[in-house]
Specification:
A hairpin with a 7-residue loop joins strand 5 and strand 6. The chain contains 24 helices and 9 strands. It is mostly helical. The two termini are about 35 Å apart. It is elongated, with a radius of gyration of 31 Å.
């Protein structure tokens, strides 16, 4: 590198990249995971959860009102089941009327009210910066209440999750926030809705992580957690303080029972995959109908009505069915009805594009299927030590885990909603087995298949940001891209040509003074422009306001600075006081370390670490590579 040892000419103004220093501080603050922004978001998320809790209460009341009017002809908000109606054949007509109204609302209101809500929310997160049309806040709960109240075989949790997400998105659109912060508000509102319905805050947080946030960081977890806690508080205030699905205490499982529950999880995982595929097979069949999709919910409701005529307890929300399943005392006929006829009714109705949730139907179908598998197992293996109530519990959770791929949500939800500590190990075994087997049988899940068919790829794993893990000093090069401010243009040109093999086609260079302190940056094109005299000092062309970075900073900050200033190199300095240049970071180093870390994480190898006489020897395969 050409440098002069002569003193700097008198009268020269010291060059200090003050703008770079201020901008560096701002960027560092943005990369800090927790700050005032998280506090502001948390306050708003708590407020939103209160509103969503009230909406949840109104939705449940509206479903009860429409159910009472439709099946019993009375104006009442009492929670009743449609299964005790005496309407006869007219029960076939009611779901059709509800489906027709929902189709009209979707056609002339918003098509986004169709479906169970979570895939639509995921799509807005991935494609539309978490912006949801505010009209969903009104249309989704009303359409769901009409659909469920007239016999639709859905739960209230899907619509309130969708409504809560829409409300969170609306506040995120009204506030001055980033798209990522709006995503947090959407997830917080959605999961506050789930927590308000079931009183299960921890599983609601996990639902946000596994299905909506696509990240795990303090800046997102804190607002979402506080929102879910407030949602649970609203559940205790507006609904009840006990578990959502109380059941008799289940026994602690034996070793033989644990093996059996694990094998049952595999069977349930196969069933969950087939159920998920069936929903989208039905949806494909509706796509082929020569009528507008507005009529599809009414057509699908015909099956709901016919099934409801022969099996009335398949109609409506069916939370009472879940309570009964967990007692382990339902007769075989009822188990077959809830397993197969409920599945038929729900599958056709959801595939038709009506408005409703998936969690309660999957819990019902899974609980009945788990009970049936448990009864069959006890018949052939009476000494396996399993319990029918436990079979129903793991059937519910494993069915949801296999269908939705929300493993942790499924396990924790079953525990929170029943308060059965002895269910932990069976739930972990069965849900993990179901979750595992589902990957072999279907590409997406019941939550992601719809949006993946539209060309939207939902993340299947959450990996830490590689650039957040690597510091600048780990990858910076030497001073090949550093010039002295006292050099002339001719000297700089000659040095660049002589060292072109080392510094390549760099578009910019870092300038230092005679003491190695940062003076600024200069573009390559300025050095080679013809109208500058050869004896012009580089100090006349320096850019004094360019950014810089510290060696201890993360590479993610370097990427932010390079993108903002449209540059491909950054000066690396020791500290903000003396600004001594310790090296130069270019985009090539960043790309190289990113590629290497990704490659290392996906490379199969054997690595044995042996420690002998204070020397740590690392062996990979049969080749000795080095010492540490």
């Amino acid at each position: 590198m050409p440098k002069k040892t002569v003193n700097k000419p008198s009268g020269a103004i010291p060059i200090s990249p003050s703008l770079g220093e201020a901008d560096h501080a701002i960027m560092e603050q943005k990369n800090y995971p927790v700050g005032r922004r998280v506090f502001y978001l948390s306050i708003q998320a708590i407020f939103n959860a209160i509103i969503v809790g009230v909406i949840a209460k109104l939705l449940v009341g509206l479903i009860a009102l429409i159910t009472n009017i439709s099946f019993y002809g009375k104006f009442s908000f009492e929670d009743v089941s449609p299964g005790n109606n005496h309407l006869g054949w007219f029960v076939v007509i009611l779901p059709v009327i509800g489906g027709l109204i929902v189709g009209i609302m979707a056609k002339f209101g918003s098509p986004a009210i169709r479906g169970h809500g979570i895939p639509e929310a995921m799509e807005q997160v991935l494609l539309n910066e978490s912006r949801i049309n505010p009209i969903i806040i009104f249309l989704k709960p009303i359409s769901a209440a009409i659909s469920i109240g007239t016999g639709g075989p859905f739960g209230a949790e899907g619509p309130i999750i969708s409504t809560g997400g829409a409300f969170g998105s609306l506040t995120g659109q009204l506030m001055r926030v980033t798209p990522n912060e709006r995503k947090i508000m959407l997830a917080a509102g959605a999961c506050a809705g789930m927590s308000a319905i079931f009183g299960t805050p921890l599983s609601a947080v996990l639902l946000a992580i596994e299905l909506l946030l696509f990240e795990f960081s303090p800046r997102s977890i804190i607002p979402v957690s506080l929102s879910c806690v407030m949602g649970a508080a609203m559940h205790y205030i507006l609904f009840s303080t006990g578990p959502s699905f109380p059941m008799p205490d289940i026994p602690q499982p034996s070793s033989a029972a644990m093996v059996t529950y694990t094998l049952m999880g595999i069977i349930i995982g196969i069933a969950a995959s087939l159920i998920s595929k069936s929903v989208y097979l039905v949806e494909d069949l509706f796509e082929k109908l020569p009528v507008h999709w507005m009529w599809w919910p009414a057509i699908g409701a015909v099956v709901v009505g016919v099934v409801g005529y022969f099996a009335p307890f398949t109609l409506g929300v069916g939370y009472s069915n879940i309570h009964n399943l967990l007692t382990g005392a339902l007769p075989l006929r009822m188990l077959f009805t809830l397993c197969f006829l409920k599945f038929l009714s729900w599958c056709v109705s959801l595939g038709s594009g009506t408005s409703g949730g998936t969690l309660a139907p999957l819990l019902t179908i899974g609980g009945a299927f788990g009970s049936l598998v448990g009864i069959a197992t006890l018949k052939f293996l009476p000494g396996c030590g399993i319990n029918i109530m436990t079979c129903a519990l793991i059937g519910m959770a494993a069915m949801f885990a296999g269908a939705s791929r929300a493993l942790l949500t499924s396990i924790v939800f079953a525990l929170e909603s029943t308060m059965q500590p002895h269910g932990l190990l069976p739930l972990m075994a069965a849900c993990t087995a179901s979750y595992f087997i589902s990957f072999f049988l279907m590409k997406g899940s019941i939550m992601t298949e719809k949006i993946e068919r539209r060309g939207v790829n939902a993340p299947h794993s959450f990996e830490p940001d590689i650039l957040q893990q690597v510091s600048v000093k780990e990858v910076l090069n030497d001073d090949n891209n550093v010039l002295n401010i006292e050099n002339t243009i001719r000297e700089a040109r000659e040095w660049i040509k002589e060292n072109s093999s080392e510094q390549g086609q760099a578009t910019a260079f870092v300038l230092t003074d005679s003491e190695g302190m940062l003076a600024g940056t200069i573009q390559r094109k300025l050095i080679f422009e013809k109208y500058h005299p050869d004896n012009t000092p580089l100090s006349d062309l320096v850019n004094e306001t360019g950014p810089y970075i510290f060696g201890k900073s993360r590479l993610s900050l370097a990427v932010d600075l390079m993108a903002k200033y449209d540059i491909d190199i950054l000066p690396v300095i020791s500290d903000s006081k003396d600004k001594k240049v310790t090296g130069v970071l270019s985009h090539k180093e960043i790309i190289s370390v990113y590629s290497k870390r990704r490659h290392d994480g996906e490379t199969y190898q054997r690595a044995i670490s042996l420690k002998r006489r204070g020397i740590k020897v690392i062996l990979r395969g049969k080749q000795f590579l080095g010492r540490e």
